[in-house]
Amino acid sequence: MFHKHKRRLAVASLLAISGTIVATAGPTQAADPATDGLVISEYVEGSSFNKAIEIYNGTGAPVSLSGYQFRLYSNGRSLGEGPSSTYDFPSVDLADGDVFVVANPSFDDGLVLGGGIDDESSAINFNGDDAITIVDGAGTVVDSFGQVGEQANYGANVTLRRTDFARDTDPADAFDASAQYEAFGSNDVSDLGLPEIDGDPDPDPDPDPVCDTPDADLTLISEIQGSGADPEARYDSPLDGQTHTIRAVVTLADSDLNGYFVQEEPADSDGDPTSSEGLFVFQSSGTLPVEGDTVELTDQVTAYFGLTQFSFPETVVCDVDPVTIDPTPLTLPLDRTGREALESMLVTTTQDLQVTGLFSAYAYGELGLALDGPLTQATSAFATDDPAAAALEAENRTKELLVNDRNEQFDDFTPYPWELFDDGLSAGDTMPAGRLVGALNYSFSEYKVEPLDNEVGDPNARIFFPETDDTVPVPSAPSLSNGNDIASFNVLNYFNTFGDSEVLRGARNQAQFDQQTAKLVDAINSLDATIVGLIEIENDYEDFYDGDPSTEPSIVTLVDSLNAAAGYDKWSYVQPGEDILTSEGLGGGGLGTDAIANGIIYQGARTKTVLPATTFDIDALLGGDAENSRWPIAQAFDLDGNRVTVVVNHFKSKGSTCDDTSGPGFGLGDDDGSTLAGNCDLTRQYAAERLVEWVETKGNPVFANRKTFLIGDFNSYEEEAPIEILVDAGYVDLVQSQGDDAFTYKFDGRYGRLDYVFASSKIAKKVTDTEVWQINSIAPTGFLYYNDPIDDSAHASSDHDPVVVSLR
């Protein structure tokens, strides 16, 4: 059946003495509002599949629903792309004043509805950032919710009830839910489908609540959060599902947080260090109270993905002077139990912390700080199967602290907040003790500080985020005592063919490519090594031989750009012979079957090549998906009176999947990434063994004198098995022996070395110096060419650092 319509209206009035209402109060009765067509009258976007739409007929006459359709536009989908899903209303008449409710089939039947549900459809599966239209039989939009083509938070985890019944027939125009809807808590369906209550509004509504709840009727926040010896019992409130009233002080409010944090009045703290005195209040629309306000809140306690909170509570701002809450000291290391005890409280750090996490700083506005940072990758320090490795990673987690940008939207700041006023930001920079003050939030399974405005910052920035001290400057290029002779450099997918696919992995357009080229040219010319091994260059060597003058190998483009910047023909490239290329693979062939390849460039005035370059199919003995490591390229040189062979390598990455690969000693499904070494460790071990076999094969003239350098990105940290295989075979890790074992790469706030120069025993004694040029691993991810680069310099020219050695 259909249901007569009743709308609840919020009372918002200024109290002369006791306080101000800023959120919903009790309902009043209202007559049916008139409309000139069907309108969306209630929107329910609750937990799980608790989603429903109510439409209302206020036209003064029955309306046939035949031909009417609900259309959902998910994830910013445009009108031109068409709806993500649709629902056809049944061929029935909707009487004047009636509502029709359609819900998701998995709607929780345990929720107490004010009225009822008329139909179900799997199309009612929107999230808070999706747009909705209602169209008639001619396809004309009669009402809409959200802005089609734009993905934004229109109404997440909230019930919205219509207050302004003017239809929104332009689904592409800007949308503000607070202009037409009143917000209620998540899963509040007390009004959904309610029948009309005729008559004039109640002439004597309940008086506005005042801030005078007796202390005996108030609940302490510490009781809601819970305390005791069992920390697991506190992750969801012991009072979950119960309705309580609290009186507390607002410590941080921001619409981008979709709410605000409150903390117990100082006099009412329970003094128990195992219980939190703070609480988050979800309110995604309407006017928020301000920091320092004392508020009385009444609501049902909920635990939203681990965060204890109120959601759109009945709210009264007390007419008292602002209250200052002193932040609670937060000292690292701190485990989950200790952080839970500070959840939603105002905290400040007590130690100097260093920047360690930079990837999520760009993508999500989450800067990672750490005690004794930057943090070390566990398998850079200990073998994978050593219990000390797991212990180190567990310790790392207790030492790390995220600082959020008060927003959970992806890439919401362009550039992200710290880059707005800190173009010198680097891993290792220092956040001094006491500078960071904020509320300790819990979101996406992470505790993170939502910072208060700070006087140390750019006044033009949207928020005065606390700035780190620039204690780690960008290093100058190495200048080794006997000259920079051999270098390894991963150039981060240098492709002169643009696109975004499994095959085309580099720049997406000419502007990005020009930026990437400029940064790499500055890096390579500044490094000024005689021989440079390149990793992650486009595997387009077949362009040397295809007879098409319009195609040019990427290595040629790079060398031409290097020479143009140098002002003379300084650089040359190694051209693999057509006889060693393959016609198979992702890119249609080349040096191996992958879309990326290895390469070598050199300065012809300082060295000469000897014999043609050579390679081999390093994956030949693998089964299943055998396209794994990139084929190495080996070239012999006369260098400083030494005949040396440089072999450039790139082993299978940790981010790949190898459970569909088998090889000598392991079967399909064995290489599943179940150890600290990550995915494909067995495949990398196999590659290390095959590499040693190849370079030590007797009769190969390229390796005849056994003065060999194995360089490149081995995708293995220092104490992992593939590196141990090479070391056990007699190859000297020059960075470890001469270069202070410096890191070259960052991942997830951890730092280690994936890039190496190994020397055979016959040439290792000739090496006088080795250095990692840390221009990239310490740089913010946002500075890379495809994000928000700040200049054309070598800084952030790749995600790996180059390694360089010198020979006598």
What helical percentage do the residues reach? 10-25%
Structural class: alpha+beta
Which strand order do you get reading across the main beta sheet? Answer: 2-21-18-15-16-17-20-19
Can you tell me the CATH class of the largest domain?
Answer: Alpha Beta
- Termini separation comes to 91 Å
The total of helices stands at 13
Mass-distribution shape: globular
Largest sheet: 8 strands, mixed
The average pLDDT is 89
How much of the polypeptide forms β-strand, as a percent range?
Answer: 25-35%
CATH topology of the largest domain: Deoxyribonuclease I, Chain A
> How many domains comprise the coordinates?
4
Number of strands: 46
Q: Which assembly state applies to the chains in this document? A: single chain
CATH homologous superfamily assignment of the largest domain: Endonuclease/exonuclease/phosphatase
Low-confidence stretches: 1-30, 196-206, 456-463
What would you report as the Rg, rounded to the nearest angstrom? Answer: 32 Å
Q: Based on the structure given, which CATH architecture of the largest domain is correct?
A: 4-Layer Sandwich
